[in-house]
Amino acid sequence: MKQTNSISRKQFLTLTGVAALSAASACTSPKSTATEAMTTKQIKRAMRIAHLTDFHVMPIGNAPQGMRNAIRHAQAQTDPPDIILNTGDCIMDSLEVSKDMAESQWETFNTIIEEECEIPIYHCIGNHDVWGWGAPTPEKQSDPLYGKGMALKQLELAERYYSFDLSGWHFIVLDSTHQAEEGSLHPYIGKLDDEQFNWLEADIQAVDATKPICIVSHIPILCACEFFDGDNEVTGNWVVPAAWMHIDARRFRQLFLQHTNIRLCLSGHSHQHETLQYLGVQYFTNGAVCGNWWRGPYLDFPPAYVLVDLFEDGSAMSTFIPYG
Questions:
Q1: Is 16 domain-assigned?
Q2: pLDDT tens per residue, range 152-196
Q3: Ramachandran sector of residue 122 (left: φ over 0; alpha: ψ -120 to 50; beta: rest)
Q4: Which among 151, 143, 82 is positioned nearest to 123, based on CA atoms?
């Protein structure tokens, strides 16, 4: 069973309830951990990323100051990051709330980014950034901002997925939130639509085979920690919902086998921290800035961000940093 100090994905959505609980927030501060010792790395570093994900910010409670603290802490590192990578769930929730409430959360998020960010930041859409899918109405569905339109506008993204090159690496930012299919207990699942997957294949094909690729998604393509995010074994078999990890992971597996320069997949969503290596690809599922939705640790992982070091040989290292 889950720890008693954790709230489930189904329980945290009402903002007023979260705000009332958040005033008493506290977090532990375990030592930072790295996937391997920095001092043993001899290959030249290409760049350092501050991976900040799952802010779940809202205008009330301790969330705004917590978000500010995380950004300040990351930028104040003695060895500072070159960029910030935000992999989504920027706001507490817009799946089930009114347009006004969703926009007030985005106003808080964008104000903090504008006032605190001193280095470039790249954004990815998270499931809780999608407006209206959890409580659709004819009025919402007729609004051009319904679904991902609001997130695209607020994050100033021209497209919901895109790619760019930086410091010798190629980055592919995916939109991993797919509208629910039959059998899903959530209004979304982790999956790419065919249009996006075709674009992904073409984008990878166009990259020089010697250039390392980092694929960025909100929902993990592959992870192990989600097995513990609920009573997933009670049926006698492990059952991980498609809303927690990409249900089309086999499709990615086949694609990655064809392109050995795909070296790293970065994601958030789980509010846990994990590094996994499979068939030559590293998967970093990184911890949440909000921890347990601003109520301290989630499954023993306190509010944190992660420093990701990328190297010229295509390798990567991950350092988990509690900032409280």
A1: no
A2: 999 999 999 999 999 999 999 999 999 987 777 889 999 999 999
A3: beta
A4: 151
